UniProtKB/TrEMBL annotation:
The lineage of its organism: Bacteria, Bacillati, Cyanobacteriota, Cyanophyceae, Oscillatoriophycideae. It comes from the Bacteria. It comes from Lyngbya aestuarii BL J. This is Diguanylate cyclase domain protein. Residues 24-278 form the EAL domain.
Amino acid sequence: RAKKLGRNNSQLFAEEMHHEALNQLTLEADLRRALIQEEFLLYYQPQVEISTGRIVGLEALIRWQHPKLGFVPPDQFIPLAEEIGLIAPIGQWVLQTACIQHQSWQAEGLPPLRIAVNLSARQFHQSQLIKIILQTLEATEIDPQYLELEITESAAMQDVEFTIQTLQELREMGLHITIDDFGTGYSSLNVLKHFPLNTLKIDRSFVQDIVENSSDAAIAQTIVALGQGLKLQVVAEGVETPQQLSFLRSIHCDLAQGYYFCPPVPAIEITQLLRQSDFSLKVNPSICS
Ligand code: C2E
Ligand code: MG
Ligand code: MG
Ligand code: MG
């Protein structure tokens, strides 16, 4: 460190850049191997109906267990996967794994839960998307109403005509469509009304200070009202405290998801939770430890 301090800023900067570039290259090479080496996992986070406390769905969230670095967050490697053209195979793996998991819960006789899968912008715009979803549904024999696709608001707004067309096809196939991170993009309401949707998901950034910050509270309330007006279900993500939940209940938000109920956990923990808890997270929100 002392040696580093002796250098001038631009040298330090160049070193850092070199370091970054190396990191990026290593990560890229590792990411290319991750699928074959089976380093990806899916975690699942319950979505809870606020009025009853029942689990109605699960969001599948990818995890990369890097052999040396440990867990690499999806916010870091999903954009990289998009950049280097790996998002299609990774996305396909996620879809397949989530559907196979659903099938295995069904086979065990557990009541069916909707499983939400995230689609990145490039995945959503990939020409094979519909075909891949059809194939996966067919192979796993899932009733399409139990497969939910989460598309971020900004991905949906990239090409409005394309989005309307694609969402229409997906809805005709019977899938459940959600706009993720709602409120962070630039939807015009005029465009939103043309999207065939089922659900709006209030971004975590508005939920975080919903109790203390009157602007965030007003935004959340407006999204809920918008959802009611458009006959869409509204989910709040990132619910961490009973106070946030109470506020969301008071504005009649439909569903909540967050650490207060349960963090994203491996499938086996969901299996145990479903067996024990009769689907209700109401009594003991910390059941997922
Ligand atoms: P997202 O879809 O908006 O997912 C919600 C994120 O919030 C998840 O982070 C989740 O672990 C986290 N979260 C849930 N409850 C709480 C809470 O109470 N407090 C806080 N602070 N955070 C909470 P995660 O799993 O790191 O995923 C980050 C993003 O990466 C996701 O945002 C999604 O955009 C993307 N992503 C994750 N899995 C996949 C995937 O399988 N495919 C694609 N394309 N993108 C994915
Ligand atoms: Mg999501
Ligand atoms: Mg989200
Ligand atoms: Mg988010």
